[in-house]
Amino acid sequence: MSIAPDTTVVLGHRFATEVPEIALRWQAEAAPDPRLLVLNESLAAELGLDPEWLRGPDGIGLLVGTRLPTDAEPVAQGYAGHQFGGWTPRLGDGRALLLGELTDTEGRLRDLHLKGSGRTPFARGGDGLAAVGPMLREYLISEAMHALGIPTTRSLAVVATGRTVQRETPLDGAVLARVAASHLRVGTFQYVAAAGEVDVLRRLADHAISRHYPGAAEADNPYLTLLDSVIAAQAELIAQWMLVGFVHGVMNTDNMTISGESIDYGPCAFMDTFDPKTVFSSIDSFGRYAYGNQPAIAVWNLTRLAEALLALIADDQDRAVELATESLQRFPQLYSAAWVAGMRRKLGLRDAIDDGTAQELSEELVELLERERVDYTSFFRRLASGAVEPAFEAWAARWRSLDPDVEAMQRVNPVYIPRNHLVEEALTAASTGDMEPFERLLRVITSPYDERSGFERYAEPAPEDFGSCFQTFCGT
Predict the structure, then answer these.
(1) Model-level pTM?
(2) Which of 109, 129, 321, 333 is deepest in the core (most CB within 10 A)?
(3) What total number of domains does the chain contain?
(4) How does DSSP assign 254-291, residue by residue?
(5) In this predicted model, what pLDDT tens digit does every residue of 160-203 receive, in sequence order?
């Protein structure tokens, strides 16, 4: 139901208005006994929302979608996608709702979106619900990514619903309130393009340009410029994932945003031991979305976006394919430039060091990291302090000869990431009602560069017996 809250909350409905053909008006299911588990007070302040009000009954009602401003138009968004390479023409928000758009304190438009708010017509046989553990996982990982400076959707709150969710075992239900620049995905464009609705596709593209790349509207070919912009944003994003050892785990086309933000933290995790073949997802049997495959998969996904945009890029199909291909061929160079720039920072290489030397040194290091199977995150902190394994000594001697800025290294190489054994420990405790391990881990990973006494275990890799068998799941 929609009931005007006691405080002023303005939820726009620009997406629903501009592309109503893929915006299905829907309502969240009632939560029998909602209870706030965690609230992101700093994000709430960014959005112009009063944290104390959000902790009250009306605020919690907003966070589960049952008490909304009277003019709100919550919708389930339609999209398609290639899932592990297989085409699914109708996916959409099966257990989610876009409540609307908020204007934050800097004037930016931000989606307020729910996960676990109940079945919609896109549910495809699912129950539309979410459990506490996976929603707390998304909260942890997304906030860690934000603290690392990586573009990401944000988590505003997790609310326990008081409803039981049946998975392999009965679990406590929850709703995640998520904030994003938008929820437009590659799969959104695929959904419209597959229907052959060129007018809708054009309005969708115009909507994406207006929200994310307004300069493209003035280009000679706005829709080709939109493609170029998404390619550039994703090249930068994937490079940042690789630089911190992040494995998304389910890089389906419906999980790649147009904005360049990371989205959907289901079977995701950070590497401990460096290995390009690292896979955490329980359903990725063939390693399609392994750590080392992520740049190539990004190109594959962006090619699907290019295909969806062909009708807008040029009237002549062959010319459209030619232009789109030229754009896609720029991804490797863009990605490589972003990755090398990031490695320069991680290694403290000064501006006087040319890119060729930086790339050669970085690529040699990657080969050593893989061969020696060392902990990826802690290696760079140890390197800055002068501690390296014997196998790295010859490489380190060349690196030292370049007079690296070790103080700068400390500012860009994290001490703390959400290590998998600590995340599981926190989520297991939370499932019994003990939120202290979660809250402690959250405090650590949201200040990732500041080494602190008493938190040594948070910087240590997982025990070997844990890391050898760890798997993550999609949460559904």
Answers:
(1) 0.95
(2) 129
(3) 1
(4) GG-BSS--B---SS-EE-SB--TT---BTT-TT-TT-G
(5) 999 999 988 999 999 999 999 999 999 999 999 999 999 999 99
